Amino acid sequence: MQHIQSYIEDHKDRFLNELIDLLKIPSVSADPAYKEHVFKTAEVIKASLLKAGCDHVEICETEGFPIVYGEKIIDANLPTVLVYGHYDVQPADPLELWDSPPYEPVIKKTDIHPEGAIFARGACDDKGQMYMHVKAMEFMTETNQLPCNVKFMIEGEEEVGSVNLSKFVKNNQEKLKNDVILISDTGMIAQDVPSITTGLRGLSYVEVEVTGPNRDLHSGLYGGAVANPINILTKMIASLHDDNNHITIPGFYDKVEELSEAERAEMAKAPFSLDDYKKALDIDAVYGEKGYTTNERNSIRPTLDVNGIWGGYIGEGAKTVIASKAFAKISMRLVPHQDWEEITDLFKTHFESIAPAGVKVKVKPHHGGQGYVTPIDSIGYQAASKAYHDTFGKNPIPQRSGGSIPIVSLFEQELKSKTILMGFGLNSDAIHSPNEHFGVWNYFKGIETIPLFYKYFTELSQS
Ligand code: BES
Ligand code: MN
Ligand code: MN
Predict the structure, then answer these.
(1) Residue nearest atom 20 of ligand 1, based on CA coordinates
(2) Ligand 1: which residues within 6 Å by Cβ?
(3) InterPro entries given for it (predicted)?
Protein backbone atom coordinates (compact mmCIF):
# COMPACT_ATOMS: atom_id res chain seq x y z
CA MET A 1 0.00 0.00 0.00
CA GLN A 2 1.17 3.45 -0.81
CA HIS A 3 2.45 5.95 1.69
CA ILE A 4 1.39 4.17 4.86
CA GLN A 5 4.70 4.87 6.56
CA SER A 6 4.80 8.49 5.48
CA TYR A 7 1.15 8.96 6.45
CA ILE A 8 1.94 7.69 9.95
CA GLU A 9 5.05 9.88 10.11
CA ASP A 10 3.05 12.97 9.12
CA HIS A 11 0.30 12.34 11.66
CA LYS A 12 2.29 10.75 14.46
CA ASP A 13 1.68 13.35 17.13
CA ARG A 14 -2.02 13.60 16.42
CA PHE A 15 -2.40 9.79 16.46
CA LEU A 16 -0.75 9.70 19.89
CA ASN A 17 -2.67 12.66 21.28
CA GLU A 18 -6.02 11.28 20.21
CA LEU A 19 -5.28 8.01 21.97
CA ILE A 20 -4.07 9.87 25.05
CA ASP A 21 -7.36 11.81 25.18
CA LEU A 22 -9.29 8.55 24.95
CA LEU A 23 -7.23 7.05 27.78
CA LYS A 24 -8.04 9.99 30.04
CA ILE A 25 -11.65 8.84 30.31
CA PRO A 26 -11.99 6.22 33.06
CA SER A 27 -14.37 3.81 31.30
CA VAL A 28 -14.45 1.14 34.01
CA SER A 29 -17.39 -1.13 33.23
CA ALA A 30 -17.29 -3.11 36.47
CA ASP A 31 -17.83 -0.19 38.85
CA PRO A 32 -21.12 1.79 38.71
CA ALA A 33 -19.28 4.88 39.97
CA TYR A 34 -17.79 5.28 36.46
CA LYS A 35 -21.05 4.93 34.56
CA GLU A 36 -21.07 8.46 33.07
CA HIS A 37 -17.53 8.04 31.84
CA VAL A 38 -18.33 4.77 30.08
CA PHE A 39 -21.24 6.41 28.22
CA LYS A 40 -19.04 9.38 27.36
CA THR A 41 -16.40 7.06 25.88
CA ALA A 42 -18.97 5.60 23.50
CA GLU A 43 -19.63 9.13 22.19
CA VAL A 44 -15.93 9.72 21.65
CA ILE A 45 -15.61 6.45 19.72
CA LYS A 46 -18.59 7.38 17.58
CA ALA A 47 -17.01 10.71 16.66
CA SER A 48 -13.69 9.04 15.88
CA LEU A 49 -15.32 6.52 13.53
CA LEU A 50 -17.11 9.29 11.65
CA LYS A 51 -13.85 11.19 11.36
CA ALA A 52 -12.13 8.04 10.11
CA GLY A 53 -14.52 7.87 7.17
CA CYS A 54 -17.40 5.63 8.21
CA ASP A 55 -20.56 6.62 6.31
CA HIS A 56 -22.88 5.60 9.05
CA VAL A 57 -22.22 5.38 12.78
CA GLU A 58 -24.73 4.73 15.54
CA ILE A 59 -24.75 4.21 19.25
CA CYS A 60 -26.77 1.09 19.93
CA GLU A 61 -28.23 1.23 23.41
CA THR A 62 -28.39 -1.98 25.44
CA GLU A 63 -29.56 -2.80 28.94
CA GLY A 64 -26.00 -2.01 29.95
CA PHE A 65 -23.37 0.03 28.14
CA PRO A 66 -23.84 0.89 24.46
CA ILE A 67 -22.28 -0.76 21.45
CA VAL A 68 -20.81 1.63 18.90
CA TYR A 69 -21.54 0.42 15.38
CA GLY A 70 -20.06 2.00 12.26
CA GLU A 71 -19.76 1.00 8.63
CA LYS A 72 -18.56 1.94 5.22
CA ILE A 73 -20.03 -0.20 2.48
CA ILE A 74 -18.40 0.56 -0.85
CA ASP A 75 -19.59 -2.36 -2.99
CA ALA A 76 -21.87 -5.26 -2.08
CA ASN A 77 -19.77 -7.55 -4.25
CA LEU A 78 -16.63 -6.93 -2.24
CA PRO A 79 -15.79 -8.77 0.99
CA THR A 80 -16.70 -7.27 4.36
CA VAL A 81 -14.35 -7.09 7.36
CA LEU A 82 -16.00 -6.75 10.78
CA VAL A 83 -13.72 -5.14 13.36
CA TYR A 84 -14.45 -5.85 17.01
CA GLY A 85 -12.89 -4.13 20.00
CA HIS A 86 -13.80 -2.88 23.45
CA TYR A 87 -13.69 0.60 24.95
CA ASP A 88 -14.24 -0.45 28.56
CA VAL A 89 -11.31 -1.06 30.90
CA GLN A 90 -10.56 -3.00 34.06
CA PRO A 91 -10.61 -1.18 37.42
CA ALA A 92 -7.24 0.46 38.12
CA ASP A 93 -6.88 -0.82 41.69
CA PRO A 94 -4.61 -1.04 43.59
CA LEU A 95 -3.94 2.63 42.87
CA GLU A 96 -0.95 2.92 45.19
CA LEU A 97 1.03 0.56 42.98
CA TRP A 98 0.87 2.87 39.95
CA ASP A 99 3.96 5.02 39.29
CA SER A 100 1.75 7.62 37.58
CA PRO A 101 -2.05 8.05 37.83
CA PRO A 102 -3.90 5.51 35.64
CA TYR A 103 -6.02 8.11 33.82
CA GLU A 104 -3.24 10.66 33.28
CA PRO A 105 -1.37 8.98 30.42
CA VAL A 106 2.39 9.54 30.22
CA ILE A 107 4.94 8.29 27.70
CA LYS A 108 8.02 6.74 29.27
CA LYS A 109 10.87 4.65 27.87
CA THR A 110 11.40 1.09 29.12
CA ASP A 111 13.99 -1.58 28.29
CA ILE A 112 11.56 -3.35 25.99
CA HIS A 113 10.08 -0.12 24.62
CA PRO A 114 13.05 2.16 23.87
CA GLU A 115 10.76 4.34 21.68
CA GLY A 116 8.54 4.87 24.68
CA ALA A 117 5.30 3.35 25.94
CA ILE A 118 2.03 5.00 26.93
CA PHE A 119 1.25 4.26 30.58
CA ALA A 120 -2.47 4.29 31.39
CA ARG A 121 -5.29 1.90 32.21
CA GLY A 122 -6.58 0.56 28.89
CA ALA A 123 -3.46 1.60 26.95
CA CYS A 124 -3.04 -1.94 25.64
CA ASP A 125 -6.32 -3.62 26.71
CA ASP A 126 -8.00 -2.53 24.59
CA LYS A 127 -8.25 1.18 23.82
CA GLY A 128 -4.79 1.42 22.25
CA GLN A 129 -5.21 -1.70 20.15
CA MET A 130 -8.78 -0.86 19.16
CA TYR A 131 -7.78 2.67 18.16
CA MET A 132 -5.11 1.31 15.78
CA HIS A 133 -8.05 0.09 13.68
CA VAL A 134 -9.69 3.50 13.70
CA LYS A 135 -6.48 5.12 12.50
CA ALA A 136 -5.87 2.40 9.89
CA MET A 137 -9.38 3.13 8.60
CA GLU A 138 -8.61 6.85 8.48
CA PHE A 139 -5.50 6.14 6.41
CA MET A 140 -7.37 3.93 3.94
CA THR A 141 -10.28 6.33 3.41
CA GLU A 142 -8.14 9.50 3.30
CA THR A 143 -5.84 8.00 0.67
CA ASN A 144 -8.62 6.27 -1.28
CA GLN A 145 -7.20 2.85 -0.65
CA LEU A 146 -10.01 1.11 1.19
CA PRO A 147 -10.27 -2.14 -0.79
CA CYS A 148 -13.44 -3.63 0.73
CA ASN A 149 -16.40 -3.02 3.05
CA VAL A 150 -15.84 -2.40 6.74
CA LYS A 151 -18.04 -2.72 9.79
CA PHE A 152 -16.97 -1.69 13.29
CA MET A 153 -18.51 -3.02 16.47
CA ILE A 154 -16.91 -1.58 19.60
CA GLU A 155 -18.47 -2.62 22.90
CA GLY A 156 -18.29 -1.36 26.48
CA GLU A 157 -18.79 -4.53 28.49
CA GLU A 158 -16.01 -6.93 27.46
CA GLU A 159 -14.36 -6.82 30.86
CA VAL A 160 -17.64 -7.81 32.53
CA GLY A 161 -18.60 -10.70 30.28
CA SER A 162 -20.19 -9.16 27.12
CA VAL A 163 -23.68 -10.25 28.17
CA ASN A 164 -25.50 -7.53 26.21
CA LEU A 165 -23.27 -7.92 23.18
CA SER A 166 -24.25 -11.59 23.02
CA LYS A 167 -27.90 -10.58 22.72
CA PHE A 168 -27.04 -7.88 20.18
CA VAL A 169 -25.17 -10.36 17.98
CA LYS A 170 -28.01 -12.89 18.13
CA ASN A 171 -30.55 -10.20 17.18
CA ASN A 172 -28.55 -8.49 14.42
CA GLN A 173 -27.18 -11.25 12.25
CA GLU A 174 -27.99 -9.50 8.97
CA LYS A 175 -26.53 -6.16 10.05
CA LEU A 176 -23.33 -7.84 11.23
CA LYS A 177 -22.94 -10.13 8.21
CA ASN A 178 -19.26 -10.34 7.25
CA ASP A 179 -16.58 -12.45 5.63
CA VAL A 180 -14.06 -12.25 8.44
CA ILE A 181 -13.81 -10.73 11.92
CA LEU A 182 -10.68 -8.84 12.86
CA ILE A 183 -9.64 -8.19 16.46
CA SER A 184 -6.60 -6.68 18.12
CA ASP A 185 -7.05 -7.55 21.79
CA THR A 186 -4.30 -10.13 22.30
CA GLY A 187 -0.52 -10.10 22.30
CA MET A 188 2.51 -11.13 20.28
CA ILE A 189 5.54 -13.18 21.34
CA ALA A 190 8.13 -10.39 21.25
CA GLN A 191 8.94 -7.15 19.38
CA ASP A 192 10.99 -9.07 16.83
CA VAL A 193 8.78 -12.18 16.85
CA PRO A 194 5.44 -11.34 15.26
CA SER A 195 2.69 -13.85 15.96
CA ILE A 196 -0.97 -14.39 15.26
CA THR A 197 -3.17 -15.75 18.03
CA THR A 198 -4.90 -18.93 16.88
CA GLY A 199 -6.53 -19.96 20.13
CA LEU A 200 -8.17 -18.50 23.22
CA ARG A 201 -9.13 -20.33 26.37
CA GLY A 202 -12.67 -20.56 27.67
CA LEU A 203 -13.60 -19.46 31.15
CA SER A 204 -15.79 -20.48 34.05
CA TYR A 205 -15.83 -18.05 36.97
CA VAL A 206 -17.43 -18.93 40.29
CA GLU A 207 -17.66 -17.53 43.79
CA VAL A 208 -17.85 -19.82 46.80
CA GLU A 209 -19.10 -19.19 50.32
CA VAL A 210 -18.46 -21.45 53.29
CA THR A 211 -20.54 -20.87 56.41
CA GLY A 212 -19.76 -22.41 59.78
CA PRO A 213 -21.31 -21.18 63.05
CA ASN A 214 -24.07 -18.57 62.86
CA ARG A 215 -21.82 -15.81 64.29
CA ASP A 216 -18.15 -14.95 64.68
CA LEU A 217 -16.77 -16.77 67.73
CA HIS A 218 -14.02 -16.28 70.33
CA SER A 219 -11.23 -18.47 68.98
CA GLY A 220 -10.23 -19.55 72.48
CA LEU A 221 -13.67 -20.42 73.79
CA TYR A 222 -14.74 -22.25 70.63
CA GLY A 223 -11.48 -22.97 68.77
CA GLY A 224 -10.94 -26.69 68.16
CA ALA A 225 -14.57 -27.57 68.81
CA VAL A 226 -16.33 -26.18 65.70
CA ALA A 227 -15.43 -26.08 62.02
CA ASN A 228 -13.50 -22.92 61.15
CA PRO A 229 -14.81 -21.87 57.69
CA ILE A 230 -11.45 -20.38 56.66
CA ASN A 231 -9.55 -23.55 57.63
CA ILE A 232 -12.13 -25.63 55.80
CA LEU A 233 -12.25 -23.43 52.69
CA THR A 234 -8.47 -23.44 52.27
CA LYS A 235 -8.38 -27.22 52.74
CA MET A 236 -11.14 -27.67 50.16
CA ILE A 237 -9.34 -25.42 47.70
CA ALA A 238 -6.04 -27.22 48.25
CA SER A 239 -7.72 -30.52 47.45
CA LEU A 240 -8.72 -29.28 43.99
CA HIS A 241 -5.21 -30.09 42.71
CA ASP A 242 -3.31 -33.35 43.26
CA ASP A 243 0.45 -33.77 43.69
CA ASN A 244 0.95 -33.59 39.93
CA ASN A 245 -1.10 -30.40 39.77
CA HIS A 246 -3.89 -32.12 37.94
CA ILE A 247 -7.34 -30.83 38.77
CA THR A 248 -9.29 -33.35 40.86
CA ILE A 249 -12.85 -32.46 39.86
CA PRO A 250 -14.36 -35.69 38.44
CA GLY A 251 -15.02 -35.36 34.70
CA PHE A 252 -13.02 -32.12 34.39
CA TYR A 253 -10.68 -33.47 31.70
CA ASP A 254 -13.19 -35.66 29.87
CA LYS A 255 -13.56 -33.40 26.83
CA VAL A 256 -10.12 -31.81 26.83
CA GLU A 257 -8.58 -31.83 23.40
CA GLU A 258 -5.23 -33.66 23.51
CA LEU A 259 -2.76 -32.29 21.02
CA SER A 260 -0.73 -34.70 18.94
CA GLU A 261 3.02 -34.99 19.51
CA ALA A 262 3.51 -33.32 16.14
CA GLU A 263 1.38 -30.33 17.16
CA ARG A 264 3.21 -30.06 20.47
CA ALA A 265 6.56 -30.22 18.69
CA GLU A 266 5.43 -27.43 16.37
CA MET A 267 4.40 -25.30 19.35
CA ALA A 268 7.73 -25.88 21.03
CA LYS A 269 9.50 -24.21 18.11
CA ALA A 270 8.27 -20.77 19.19
CA PRO A 271 11.16 -18.86 20.74
CA PHE A 272 10.97 -18.96 24.53
CA SER A 273 13.52 -18.57 27.31
CA LEU A 274 12.60 -20.07 30.65
CA ASP A 275 15.36 -18.05 32.31
CA ASP A 276 14.01 -14.77 30.96
CA TYR A 277 10.50 -15.79 31.97
CA LYS A 278 11.56 -16.49 35.56
CA LYS A 279 13.66 -13.35 35.68
CA ALA A 280 10.82 -11.13 34.47
CA LEU A 281 8.58 -12.43 37.26
CA ASP A 282 11.31 -12.71 39.90
CA ILE A 283 10.56 -16.38 40.61
CA ASP A 284 13.10 -19.14 41.14
CA ALA A 285 11.00 -21.88 39.55
CA VAL A 286 7.91 -22.29 37.40
CA TYR A 287 5.03 -24.35 38.72
CA GLY A 288 2.26 -26.29 37.05
CA GLU A 289 0.79 -29.46 35.67
CA LYS A 290 3.21 -32.36 35.41
CA GLY A 291 4.09 -33.48 31.91
CA TYR A 292 3.62 -30.10 30.19
CA THR A 293 5.90 -27.20 29.35
CA THR A 294 5.29 -23.66 30.56
CA ASN A 295 3.84 -22.59 27.22
CA GLU A 296 1.58 -25.64 27.12
CA ARG A 297 0.42 -25.05 30.68
CA ASN A 298 -0.65 -21.52 29.87
CA SER A 299 -2.38 -22.20 26.58
CA ILE A 300 -3.50 -25.74 25.67
CA ARG A 301 -4.19 -26.99 29.21
CA PRO A 302 -7.12 -26.10 31.45
CA THR A 303 -6.41 -24.56 34.86
CA LEU A 304 -8.06 -23.62 38.14
CA ASP A 305 -6.98 -20.56 40.12
CA VAL A 306 -8.16 -18.70 43.17
CA ASN A 307 -8.46 -15.03 42.21
CA GLY A 308 -9.37 -13.72 45.64
CA ILE A 309 -10.01 -15.09 49.12
CA TRP A 310 -11.34 -13.38 52.19
CA GLY A 311 -12.95 -13.76 55.59
CA GLY A 312 -12.16 -13.13 59.25
CA TYR A 313 -10.05 -10.35 60.67
CA ILE A 314 -7.59 -8.56 58.41
CA GLY A 315 -7.35 -5.19 60.19
CA GLU A 316 -4.46 -3.83 62.27
CA GLY A 317 -3.02 -5.96 65.05
CA ALA A 318 -4.47 -9.29 66.14
CA LYS A 319 -8.05 -10.22 66.88
CA THR A 320 -8.79 -13.71 68.18
CA VAL A 321 -11.78 -14.82 66.21
CA ILE A 322 -13.28 -17.68 64.25
CA ALA A 323 -15.22 -16.11 61.40
CA SER A 324 -18.69 -17.33 60.61
CA LYS A 325 -18.00 -17.20 56.85
CA ALA A 326 -15.19 -17.52 54.33
CA PHE A 327 -15.26 -16.70 50.61
CA ALA A 328 -13.24 -17.18 47.45
CA LYS A 329 -13.46 -16.27 43.79
CA ILE A 330 -12.22 -19.02 41.50
CA SER A 331 -11.59 -19.05 37.77
CA MET A 332 -11.14 -22.05 35.53
CA ARG A 333 -9.52 -21.50 32.14
CA LEU A 334 -10.83 -24.02 29.65
CA VAL A 335 -9.66 -25.43 26.36
CA PRO A 336 -11.62 -26.18 23.18
CA HIS A 337 -14.44 -28.74 23.58
CA GLN A 338 -14.81 -28.15 27.31
CA ASP A 339 -18.23 -26.58 27.75
CA TRP A 340 -18.12 -23.79 30.32
CA GLU A 341 -21.61 -24.39 31.70
CA GLU A 342 -20.95 -28.09 32.07
CA ILE A 343 -17.65 -27.38 33.86
CA THR A 344 -19.41 -24.92 36.16
CA ASP A 345 -21.90 -27.68 37.08
CA LEU A 346 -19.11 -30.21 37.64
CA PHE A 347 -17.35 -27.73 39.91
CA LYS A 348 -20.50 -27.02 41.89
CA THR A 349 -21.37 -30.68 42.41
CA HIS A 350 -17.83 -31.56 43.41
CA PHE A 351 -17.27 -28.59 45.69
CA GLU A 352 -20.51 -29.21 47.55
CA SER A 353 -19.67 -32.92 47.85
CA ILE A 354 -16.29 -32.35 49.54
CA ALA A 355 -17.66 -30.05 52.24
CA PRO A 356 -17.38 -31.74 55.63
CA ALA A 357 -20.25 -31.87 58.10
CA GLY A 358 -20.33 -28.71 60.16
CA VAL A 359 -20.25 -26.21 57.27
CA LYS A 360 -22.64 -25.15 54.54
CA VAL A 361 -21.31 -24.39 51.06
CA LYS A 362 -22.77 -22.15 48.37
CA VAL A 363 -21.39 -21.94 44.82
CA LYS A 364 -22.43 -18.92 42.82
CA PRO A 365 -21.59 -19.01 39.08
CA HIS A 366 -20.47 -15.75 37.48
CA HIS A 367 -19.86 -15.30 33.76
CA GLY A 368 -18.08 -17.65 31.43
CA GLY A 369 -17.47 -18.51 27.83
CA GLN A 370 -16.16 -21.09 25.41
CA GLY A 371 -12.63 -21.39 24.09
CA TYR A 372 -11.69 -20.90 20.47
CA VAL A 373 -9.22 -22.26 17.92
CA THR A 374 -8.83 -21.20 14.34
CA PRO A 375 -6.98 -22.95 11.50
CA ILE A 376 -3.97 -21.40 9.79
CA ASP A 377 -5.03 -22.31 6.26
CA SER A 378 -7.96 -19.88 6.07
CA ILE A 379 -7.87 -16.86 3.77
CA GLY A 380 -8.04 -14.64 6.83
CA TYR A 381 -4.98 -16.19 8.44
CA GLN A 382 -3.04 -16.12 5.16
CA ALA A 383 -3.90 -12.45 4.64
CA ALA A 384 -2.77 -11.59 8.16
CA SER A 385 0.41 -13.59 7.68
CA LYS A 386 1.28 -11.70 4.49
CA ALA A 387 0.54 -8.38 6.17
CA TYR A 388 2.95 -9.16 9.03
CA HIS A 389 5.53 -10.40 6.58
CA ASP A 390 5.47 -7.02 4.84
CA THR A 391 5.83 -4.93 7.98
CA PHE A 392 8.05 -7.16 10.16
CA GLY A 393 10.08 -8.75 7.38
CA LYS A 394 9.30 -12.27 8.56
CA ASN A 395 6.46 -14.72 8.80
CA PRO A 396 4.42 -14.55 12.01
CA ILE A 397 4.22 -17.59 14.28
CA PRO A 398 0.80 -19.03 15.14
CA GLN A 399 0.34 -18.99 18.90
CA ARG A 400 -2.40 -20.15 21.23
CA SER A 401 -3.08 -17.71 24.01
CA GLY A 402 -4.12 -18.41 27.56
CA GLY A 403 -6.48 -15.45 27.82
CA SER A 404 -10.17 -15.41 26.99
CA ILE A 405 -12.42 -13.35 24.73
CA PRO A 406 -15.63 -15.36 25.13
CA ILE A 407 -17.51 -13.45 22.45
CA VAL A 408 -15.25 -14.91 19.74
CA SER A 409 -16.80 -18.38 19.89
CA LEU A 410 -20.25 -16.79 19.89
CA PHE A 411 -19.31 -14.90 16.70
CA GLU A 412 -18.50 -18.20 15.05
CA GLN A 413 -21.72 -19.79 16.27
CA GLU A 414 -24.04 -16.91 15.33
CA LEU A 415 -22.32 -15.17 12.43
CA LYS A 416 -20.59 -18.25 11.02
CA SER A 417 -17.33 -16.45 10.50
CA LYS A 418 -13.77 -16.94 11.63
CA THR A 419 -11.95 -14.42 13.75
CA ILE A 420 -8.39 -13.32 13.07
CA LEU A 421 -6.61 -12.16 16.21
CA MET A 422 -3.88 -9.67 15.30
CA GLY A 423 -2.52 -8.65 18.68
CA PHE A 424 0.28 -6.12 19.08
CA GLY A 425 0.67 -6.11 22.88
CA LEU A 426 3.33 -7.88 24.93
CA ASN A 427 2.80 -10.02 28.04
CA SER A 428 5.01 -7.55 29.90
CA ASP A 429 2.62 -4.67 29.09
CA ALA A 430 0.86 -5.40 32.39
CA ILE A 431 -2.76 -5.52 31.23
CA HIS A 432 -5.20 -5.66 34.19
CA SER A 433 -2.23 -4.72 36.44
CA PRO A 434 -0.84 -1.47 37.79
CA ASN A 435 1.33 0.42 35.25
CA GLU A 436 -0.38 -1.01 32.18
CA HIS A 437 1.31 0.33 29.06
CA PHE A 438 1.43 -0.03 25.29
CA GLY A 439 4.53 0.52 23.18
CA VAL A 440 4.44 3.54 20.89
CA TRP A 441 6.29 1.40 18.32
CA ASN A 442 3.64 -1.32 18.67
CA TYR A 443 0.83 1.21 18.21
CA PHE A 444 2.29 2.51 14.96
CA LYS A 445 3.26 -0.99 13.80
CA GLY A 446 -0.35 -2.03 14.22
CA ILE A 447 -1.61 0.95 12.24
CA GLU A 448 0.89 0.06 9.52
CA THR A 449 0.03 -3.65 9.37
CA ILE A 450 -3.79 -3.52 9.50
CA PRO A 451 -4.40 -1.87 6.09
CA LEU A 452 -2.29 -4.62 4.49
CA PHE A 453 -4.60 -7.21 6.00
CA TYR A 454 -7.51 -5.54 4.19
CA LYS A 455 -5.57 -5.49 0.95
CA TYR A 456 -4.51 -9.15 1.05
CA PHE A 457 -7.84 -10.37 2.37
CA THR A 458 -9.63 -8.69 -0.53
CA GLU A 459 -7.12 -10.01 -3.07
CA LEU A 460 -7.22 -13.58 -1.73
CA SER A 461 -11.03 -13.55 -1.52
CA GLN A 462 -11.26 -12.68 -5.19
CA SER A 463 -8.66 -15.07 -6.53
N1 BES B 1 -7.95 -8.75 25.98
C2 BES B 1 -8.21 -9.62 27.07
C3 BES B 1 -7.97 -11.08 26.75
C4 BES B 1 -6.59 -11.46 26.26
C5 BES B 1 -5.45 -10.75 26.59
C6 BES B 1 -6.48 -12.58 25.47
C7 BES B 1 -4.22 -11.14 26.12
C8 BES B 1 -5.25 -12.99 25.01
C9 BES B 1 -4.11 -12.25 25.33
C10 BES B 1 -9.64 -9.42 27.53
O11 BES B 1 -9.96 -8.05 27.68
C12 BES B 1 -9.82 -10.04 28.89
O13 BES B 1 -9.27 -9.51 29.82
N14 BES B 1 -10.59 -11.12 29.01
C15 BES B 1 -10.90 -11.69 30.26
C16 BES B 1 -12.17 -12.45 30.22
C17 BES B 1 -13.42 -11.60 30.34
C18 BES B 1 -14.66 -12.48 30.32
C19 BES B 1 -13.41 -10.73 31.55
C20 BES B 1 -9.82 -12.64 30.71
O21 BES B 1 -9.14 -13.28 29.88
O22 BES B 1 -9.64 -12.75 31.92
MN1 MN C 1 -9.32 -6.95 26.06
MN1 MN D 1 -9.10 -7.36 29.61
Answers:
(1) 404
(2) 125-126, 158-159, 161, 185-187, 200, 203, 367, 401, 403-406
(3) Bact_exopeptidase_dim_dom, Cyt/Met_Dipeptidase, Peptidase_M20, Peptidase_M20_dimer
